[in-house]
Amino acid sequence: MTEILINGQPVQARPDQTVLEAALAAGFYVPYFCWHPRLSIAGNCRMCLVEVEGRGLDIACNMPVTAGMRVLTDSEEVKAHRKAILQFITLNHPVDCGICDKAGECRLQDYYYTYNGERSKSVEPKLRSSKHHGLSDRIVLDNERCILCLRCTRFTHEVSKSKSLGVERRADASNIRAVEDGSLDRDPYSDNIIDLCPVGALQSRSFLYKARIWYLEPTPSVCPGCERGCTVQIWHRKAEWRLKALDPRQNTCIARVTPLENPAVNGAWICNKGRDLARIFERARAEHPMLKGKAVALDEAVQAARALIVAARRPAALVSNWGSNEELAAFKRHLGEMFATFVKIDAAPEPGERIADELLIRPDKNPNTACARALFGDGPPILPEGSDLVLVWGEGCDFATLPRGARIIFLNCYLRPENGHADVFVPLSTQTERRGHYTNFEGTVSEFQPCFSKPDSVADAAVLFEALAAPVQARP
Amino acid sequence: MAGQQLLMTFPVTATSHGLAEYRARGGYTVLEDALHTRTPQEITQAVTAAGLQGRGGALFPTGRKWAVVVPGDGQPHYLVANADEGEPGTFKDRWILENAPHLLLEGMLLSAYALEARHCFIYIRGEFDLPYRRVAAAVEEAYEAGWLGEHIGGTGFACDILVYRGAGAYVAGEASGLLSSLEGKKSYPRNRPPRLTVRGLYQRPTVVNNVESLSNVAGIVAHGAAAFRAVGTQKSPGTRLISVSGHINRPGVYEVELGFPWRKFLEEDCGGVLGGRPLKAVVPGGISSKVLTGAETETLRLSHEDLWSAGSTLGSGGMIVVAEGTCMVRLLQIMLRFYHHESCGQCTPCRDGTGWMHRIIDRIVAGDGRPEDIERLYYIAKYNDGTTICGLGDAAGFAASGMLDKFRDEFDYYIAHKRSRCEGRIE
Amino acid sequence: MNDLIAEFEALRARFPPGFESSFVLPCLRRMHERRGYVADADIDALVALLGVPRIQVEEALSFYTQFRRRPIGRWHLQICRNVSCSMRGADRLLEHLQRKLEVAPGETTPDGRCTLDTVECLGSCGTAPVMMVNERYVENLSLTTLDRLLDELK
Q1: Which of A163, A168, A177 shows the shortest C-beta gap to C53?
Q2: Prior bond to B193 cis, omega within 30?
Q3: C91 and B90 in contact by Cβ < 8 A?
Q4: Are B331 and B245 in contact (CB under 8 A)?
Q5: Last residue of some domain: A74, A98, A130?
Q6: Neighbour count for residue B302 (Cβ, 10 Å)
Q7: Does the residue A37 lie in any domain?
Q8: How far apart are the C-alpha atoms of B20 and A96, rounded to whole Å?
Q9: Is A105 strand, coil or helix?
Q10: Do C144 and C89 fall into the same domain?
Q11: Residue (of A194, A188, A198, A185) closest to A226 by Cα position
């Protein structure tokens, strides 16, 4: 370890650390825009200037620690320089806070209040530039807000490797631009640059103007898009901000999805599929239990299903690899003895979807195959001859492949024509309506928590399995 | 003649730049001799002991730069001659490229031998046409004569020199910006550490030296460090090629022995101020050096230490002579426009600061200046000093603060009266 | 551009290994010499030849003043407006050029003959005022020599 002094305090640093890393680790906050722990050092924003006794001021993000160095992070010189850097950054930065999505989570806002707070010294009109430049199908760039920290550009070169962003022109006419061959549109990790952007320059088209972030709260969850199981934050309206004046859907929808930092699984990133979880979870819901298409109360549906189970000679089950660890365990415990159980592949890759890469994306587009196979084996989902009752749990089953004449109990979340064809149909809660865990392809278990309440008429699968296993009540 | 001459020692004719006449002048004998009788370390020692200071603008001791390169470290080393000459007022490297290209090549070869550089580059600004053709021709001549390639001088020393043309960017004259450009990218300078002599071109140890610096190496090796030190002053040994332009009767490139009296040089060698007008100011070493008043040239010698003690620098040796009656406000406007145009845009203080300074001075010149504009210009200069990735930000600040320090009353007048005190005259 | 490939390969042979990225600038310059500007198809060809990221080429084209993505006139007149040239009359010469050619800096005459641009220091301050005409430096300009030059440019 190398010992340095920060503001007079001894700090133990690793010899390969920079002063910025050592300071942050020791609890001394040094402001920065362009630095990021997972990107190369750019050293262009100059916000992290610190004073080293005997050497003057220099940026901390690119400063190796040397034994005995005496660093000052809050001297008068440092403070004056921070104000000046903020003067330069806000020289042409539009005062868009009132209409900018980033407000409330904007590094520039936070630093301005903490370190500057003075009026601009400039009387020049601010430079104008394109405020709604379509960087890609998913991302809009406001060039006036951009502070050219180049985090976005470095991300595409170093992490997603699409190399799809760069800088056109020079001086204060510089603009971030996407390469002209459309690579950014094809970069499945593109939206991470929205999180990385320290100001409101990069905005998600799907989130644009949807909600102020202080009305939202994040709930930890797991992306079900593939067996990586990246941990995410699902943002939705805080309970106290669910206003009657709003469309009820706005009160209970997924506003946006961001990564939940996780060194063991996905680091700081997720792919765009994870951003689009609303596409999965906000499809039209099945809300009513049915018997052959006729809506009934949940009790009646459960009773009917129990009767079918008791009467069946060769019951088989196709379980969902979107079931949580808890739900799958509940199936095993309550129904595993009764049913010949196979693991179904609920979701296949969509046309054009990237199958796999070296970053995050995995070929199995389902969140919990690992747990399902551990419980029920990895044989293919081929039903035995003569199965006369099939319990289908989850999506991805083509009913035409089921044995003719078999009775069908179908458990699913979403509205589909097959719901009405099943002998018994029970609607289920989605991942966002309950707590649970998934096991990823490496065996790592991650938790998801509920964001919303489930509709009254749908069942939690784990509870339902226990109910289905109870002996049939004798008919009076 | 302004003191002893070391480089401009032959009459320039239509053919004096060629290999034949260079050889007739004794060219390449130093290289041949050194390859057979000296070690690389001896070359470096000579250059270090001679106290050669970089002649591109920073005046950094050349030997000290070379010393960082570790001999025998098992990786490629590169030597790059910085022929990007873009500092306004400077055109002396051009003289060497056009008239003494083989002097540069021989200097590069000796330096490459000292630095164990197998490949060398001459990065020449894209606009230079005749200088490029002369250097490219000289390189071909050198290959044909066996001074480049394998087994040079019949020894095991091999070296290639490649000429690389820029494409129009002042910031490519900054050493790390130059290497970014040489790597085929936009000319963004780099933060240090690491120094370029540790990780430079394609992350290999690289020495970037100015054309004139390298052109002094053959002489130092031939005559020894002591002989070099006998010329010039103790703190700035040798000579400088000074580019003289502006309101001067005989503009051109002159070789000046360091320590030569400044006013004497201007009057006698350069013919004095155009039209016999009084001398108002001189920009000593390119517009990135702080302007001095005409009066200051009377007491100063042309040496590095004299200029430093006066708060300026001899820098690139680009001397611009300004006659009485010239509007310094308009001159500063041209300078600030230049820095704004050339800023690469990478770092905050320079990108935003050069644009800001340009718009302020434009407003002043248009008659819409305010008293606080002076403080604004000083503020921007102050917070570009030592805060940027490269020296362009600092330089823009020096141009502004230098002008304001020496000609403040002119700026106050322009702001107060909304017009120039000199009718806006710059010719 | 295919006939230039042999030239590029010869260039590559002179450089140390691993310098593919460096060829972007010389290749772009060569394309300018051939076509007068760099077309989008040229960019594709260069990326395929060198294996560099396309964005690197786009950035270089945008960053350097000598690179163009649109054609200009037959004669590119670039007059220096920096300190020494201004002090020796560049402003008057520029004004004269604008009046005679009836174009502003950045524009091309309707007959495609001349494109006028102002540039920063060309490194020829001792022979100010200076102008580039295509690749050539024209030095010690005066109104007379300027008029004579314009007559020669067809």
Answers
A1: A163
A2: yes
A3: no
A4: no
A5: A74
A6: 31
A7: yes
A8: 69
A9: coil
A10: yes
A11: A188
CB contact under 8 A, C54 and A170: no
CA distance A304 to A323: 23
Q: Which pLDDT does position C1 carry in this prediction?
A: 66
Q: Which residue of A has its CA nearest to C52?
A: A163
C65 in A contact zone (CB under 8 Å) = no
Chains that touch B (3 or more CB pairs under 8 A): A, C
A262 inside domain: no
> Per the structure, how many domains does chain C have?
2
**CATH number of the structural domain spanning residue A37:** 3.10.20.740
Residue that is written with structure tokens 């002053």 in the block: B233
Q: How many domains does chain A have?
A: 2
Q: Which of A49, A17, A27, A37 is nearest to A2 (CA)?
A: A17
- Percentage of chain A surpassing pLDDT 70? 99
pTM listed for this prediction:
0.96
What is the b/e burial string over A449-459, where b = at least 16 CB atoms within 10 angstroms of the residue's CB? ebbbebeebbb
Q: Report cis status (omega within 30 of 0) of the bond before A263.
A: no
Cα–Cα distance, A233 to A255 (Å, whole number): 11
List of chain B residues whose C-beta atoms are within 8 Å of the C-beta of residue C95: none
Residue A42's SS3 state is coil
Q: Which of A50, A74, A98 is the last residue of a domain?
A: A74
Token digits of residue C139? 């030095």
The answer to whether residues C40 and C95 belong to one domain is no
Q: How far apart, in whole angstroms, are the C-alpha atoms of residue A337 and residue C14?
A: 75
Q: Are strands A231-237 and A216-222 parallel, antiparallel or unpaired?
A: antiparallel
Query: Dmax of chain B from CA atoms?
Result: 73
The pLDDT confidence band at residue A472, using thresholds 50, 70 and 90, is low
Q: Is residue C118 part of a domain?
A: yes
How many angstroms separate the Cα of B151 from the Cα of each of B19, B35, B145, B181, C110? 19, 10, 12, 30, 57
Where residue C105 sits, what CATH number does that domain have?
3.40.30.10
Candidates B334, B358, B392: best to mutate against C (most CBs of C within 10 A) is B334
The rounded distance, in Å, linking the Cα atoms of A393 and A425 is: 10
Average pLDDT over residues A275-279: 97
Rounded CA-CA distance B315/B285 in Å is 4
Chain B CA closest to residue A86: B348
* Segments forming the whole domain that contains residue C52: 2-63
Q: Which residues contact B221 (CB under 8 A, 6 or more apart)?
A: B30, B34, B38, B43, B46, B47, B110
| Contact criterion met (CB below 8 Å) for B103 and B27 | yes
H or E element at residue B34: helix B29-37
Q: How do residues B290-334 score in pLDDT, each as one tens digit?
A: 999 999 999 999 999 999 999 999 999 999 999 999 999 999 999
DSSP character for B135? H
Q: Is the ipTM of this complex over 0.95?
A: yes
What's the CA gap between B335 and B426, in Å, rounded? 13
Residues near A306 by beta carbon (within 8 Å), at least 6 away in sequence: A467, A468, A470, A471, A472
Mean pLDDT over the full length of chain B: 98
Structure tokens at C66: 């000598």
Among residues C43, C63, C83, the one where a domain terminates is C63
Domains of chain B: 19-229 (3.40.50.11540), 239-323 (3.10.20.600), 328-417 (1.20.1440.230)
Listed in sequence order, the residues at least 6 apart from A299 whose beta carbon sits closer than 8 Å to its beta carbon are: none
Domain span at A358: 290-469
CATH of the domain at C44: 1.10.10
Residue-wise pLDDT tens digits, C56-106: 999 999 999 999 999 999 999 999 999 999 999 999 999 999 999 999 999
Separation between Cα atoms, residue A47 and residue A475, nearest integer Å: 77
Q: Which two tokens stand for residue B59?
A: 């005046």
Report the phi/psi class of residue A353: left, alpha or beta, with left for phi > 0 and alpha for psi in -120 to 50: beta
Question: How many beta-carbon pairs below 8 A join chains A and C?
Answer: 29
